[in-house]
Amino acid sequence: MLTRIATRLGQRRASILSRCLALAVAAALAWPARSAAWTSVLLPALSPFLAIGSGLAARAAGWIALLALPVLALGLVRPRWFCRYGCPVGLLQESIRRCPKSRPAPIQRRPRLGPGLVLMTFAGAVLGYPLFLWLDPLAIFNGFWNAGRQPWTLPSVAAGLGLPLLLLLELILPRLWCHRVCPLGATQDGLAMIGRQLRRAVRRSSARSQPISAGGRLPPARRQFMAVCAGLAGAGFMRHVYPRPSAPPLRPPGAVEESRFIGLCVRCGNCAQACPSSIIRPDLGSSGWAGFLTPILRFDQDYCREDCRRCHQVCPSGAIARLSLEEKRRRVIGLAEVSLDACLLAQGRECTACLRRCPFDALDMHSPDGGFSNQPRVDLAKCNGCGACEAACPVRPARAIRVRETALAHPQAAR
Amino acid sequence: MKQLMTRRQLLRLLAAAGLGPAIAQRTVADLASPAAARPKIAENQLAPPSNRPCYPAVMRDGRVIQPERPLAVIEETEVLVVGGGPAGFAAAVAAARAGARTALVERYGYFGGQWTGGLVLLVISSHAREDGRLVKVLQGVGGELLDRLSKIDGAIVHHKPDQFNPTTDPEATKFMMDEMIREAGVKVFLHCWVADVVMEGPVVRGVVFESKAGRQAILARVVIDATGDGDVFAAAGAEHERRFHAIGLVHRLGNADRAGLESLRANGIKSIGSIEPLPAVKWINLRGPSTDCLDIAELTRLEMEHRRSIWLRAQQLRQKPGGEPLFLLQTAPQLGVRISRLLAGVQQLTYEEARQGRSFPNTIAVGGAQNAHHRGWPIPYGVLIPRTLDQVIAAGRCICVDEKLIEDMRLLASCLTTGHAAGAAAALAVKTGRRPREVDIAQLQQLLLRQGAYLG
After folding, report:
1. Which residues fall within 8 angstroms of residue A371, CB to CB, at 6 or more apart?
2. Are A75 and A194 spatial neighbours (Cβ–Cβ below 8 Å)?
3. Residue A324 lies in a domain
4. Is B186 on the interface with A (CB under 8 A)?
5. Does B371 contact A at CB distance below 8 Å?
């Protein structure tokens, strides 16, 4: 069908135009004119791979999952329609593939990894750890644009490298990603097959028409079985065996339990980009290799505002739960801790920067010796680790009051 | 041989011969000039007879009544500054330098208020940080004082170009304030405690103060309330709020350079106090309980309790190994009153506005950052001006800011800069014949910049 379109110039022009339009819309959604807009959630939410994987893992689906329905429905009737006309990564790859007029791709001999990845991810998702959710091309696309809006630091550059790497891959091994690896493409192949089965079943029951030739091929059942087993084993390992610190790193409030979070997070960078305080940064190691590029909080410039839950609104995978403002305010990120050796107040300097800044009234002045020395005291029942004290602390280079990781930072420990 | 006289008689004779002329000489001299006989010092000790009228309070129907009485006006001036603390000092110098006839009334015998008498010493928030570089917001009169102190050995520390929050020596600061006040030509009244205001209708015309000379008055065109506690605007009935805050007492330890710091540290004493310009002296803060500084019973109690606990603490320190050479050098002459009355001004500056660095068209000073870690915050002129009361400008720690920002505003640097602005504004009001609230802001800002102030 593609070749037929290519022969007709007018149709080809229309096709190119429509694809450019799709690309522009995708970029505009990921990079809206207004900073910290919620539109960045729309593009990744279109992906049925992401919606099914995160829905299975979270055992719940919000309204955002509805956005994946059109693509899912189209995938049942038109094989890989979204890949051809909607996917911005595919469109970009195709355009750079055309530019050097390279030789046709010898991808026929490469193994088809996509279906295996999808099966492993969905199987893992049943155990709460969708292993390769982060390979979703729409999340990778968003990650690039979101990183572009951040200040240029090593973590932000690393977070944006996904798309350039895919384009580089396209130059070296054309079409390999789309046809052999991409889990979103493989999901659509699977959907197309299901669609065919459904239609066949419908026609058999009603019209008894001729069987349709099998177009998209699925891997042998043995491989399917092994992929499912590998997915289950991988998820089990990640959730129960993979070593984890006793206290999870500082995550955006509403982040699901740590062992599921690093699986559910697709590293799209939406939360970091949407955060009005710019305190969400991609992690480069503090949460282990499995947590590479997951969002962690840094309070050196600003704090987690008590009236904000933008990161909840833009998370496409549900790694950051959609909490009500009241729930979010009670969710513990970490707990403030004072270093008395550095604290100005403890040195008789009358500094009350953190006490004044605390939005939750969780700090008071304490004197252990009748007033000769004073120090801020943290009310652990009120502190939720928003970091306002740390951001306000005038001590440099290391702050005298810092938000520390705590085992209380857990959805079950919400106050 | 018969002796003419016994040995004892001889001795008597000799003694009489010596004493007699001595007594005689003195007596004759006295007779010759009676004035010279009186020792010279006695003349100076005899004050002229007092013509001070007596109007004692009287008991009438079981109540104590102060009879109506005329007050002697001992000075008529253009700008009158009440209070010689950091704000009052800066205001007086700025007003006098701007060409206004200026008088300054101070209840104690020295300038500096909490800075020197309260031994605060540490000039916090002298700087801010903008785009990563240090910006000195404490300029103008206060900045000049610090610069002049830095020319005296042992008068100031942490006052190099890349440093902030200097600490000054109290005696050097008092001396330099005296010098600058004298050079500026301010007429000074020390040991005078302002007790009331002189009103003419809704306008403040001067103040009434108590001293050893009794109750007297000074009239002025503009009065600057740099009392810290807002005594002037409160007496005039201006709207204000009262706040309780910690009241402590600073003390200093001597011989700190001889103490065995290692041994003390081994015994759990991490630090014996903060740095002062003199290496032998360490500075210790005491925050104290939050209470009402307008309650004399509280002030009395705190003064005695604080001094007792400081004495005991110093003795404890002396008994620790390494602490033997230490001694209690001084408790502060003044209790450390931090906040009491806050003016209800025509404009209130809030903590949020200040932290956002909101700019104002009527900026007259810039507040700094503790530890110079954030940008400076513009201070608008309206926070110094009472809502309805006229001819009064507030300065220092009693101006119109919210309860969070006052923690920054009460610090020395902010008191010096708002004091400078109030002094310049008062002089300008007098020169242009306008009320302080109607002073031309552009002219005021030009004057402040000419006087070296920093406006951002």
Report:
1. B246, B248, B286, B287, B288, B289, B309
2. no
3. no
4. no
5. yes
CB–CB contact A395 B371 (8 Å): yes
List, in sequence order, every residue forming a beta bridge with B390; answer none if it has no partner: B203
Is ipTM over 0.95? no
- Residues A176 and B9: their CA atoms lie apart, in Å, by 142
- Say yes or no for a CB contact (<8 Å) between B271 and A371: no
Structure tokens at B101: 């006839």
Q: What is the CATH number of the domain that holds A394?
A: 3.30.70.20
Per-residue pLDDT of chain B (456 residues; tens, 9 = 90+): 556 677 777 777 776 666 666 665 665 555 555 555 555 556 667 777 777 788 899 999 999 999 999 999 999 999 999 999 999 999 999 999 999 999 999 999 999 999 999 999 999 999 999 988 999 999 999 999 999 999 999 999 999 999 999 999 999 999 999 999 999 999 999 999 999 999 998 899 999 999 999 999 999 999 999 999 999 999 999 999 999 999 999 999 999 999 999 999 998 888 899 999 999 999 999 999 999 999 999 999 999 999 999 999 999 999 999 999 999 999 999 999 999 999 999 999 999 999 999 999 999 999 999 889 999 999 999 999 999 999 999 999 999 999 999 999 999 999 999 999 999 999 999 999 999 999 999 999 999 999 999 998
Backbone angles phi, psi at B308, to 5 degrees: -65, -45
- The answer to whether residue B419 neighbours chain A at the CB level (below 8 Å) is no
Contacts of the segment B191-196: beta carbons below 8 A, 24+ positions apart: B191/B106, B191/B107, B191/B108, B191/B109, B192/B105, B192/B106, B192/B107, B193/B107, B194/B82, B194/B83, B194/B105, B194/B107, B194/B227, B194/B231, B194/B232, B195/B235, B196/B235
Under an 8 A CB cutoff, do B248 and A367 touch? no
Look at residue A219 and tell me if it is in a domain: yes
Q: Do A356 and B407 touch (CB under 8 A)?
A: yes
Chain B residues in contact with A395 by the CB 8 A cut-off are 371, 373
| Closest by Cβ to A352, choosing from B248, B285, B407 | B407
Residues of A in contact with B288 (CB under 8 A): 371
Query: Which residue segment(s) compose the domain that A148 sits in?
Result: 12-241
Chain A residue closest in CA terms to B285: A348
Where among A200, A215, A241 does a domain terminate? Answer: A241
Of the three residues A179, A211, A241, the one that is the final residue of a domain is A241
Asked if the Cβ–Cβ distance from B285 to A350 is below 8 Å, we say yes
Cα distances (angstroms) measured from residue B283 to each of A394, B169, B324, B331, B434: 21, 11, 17, 10, 45
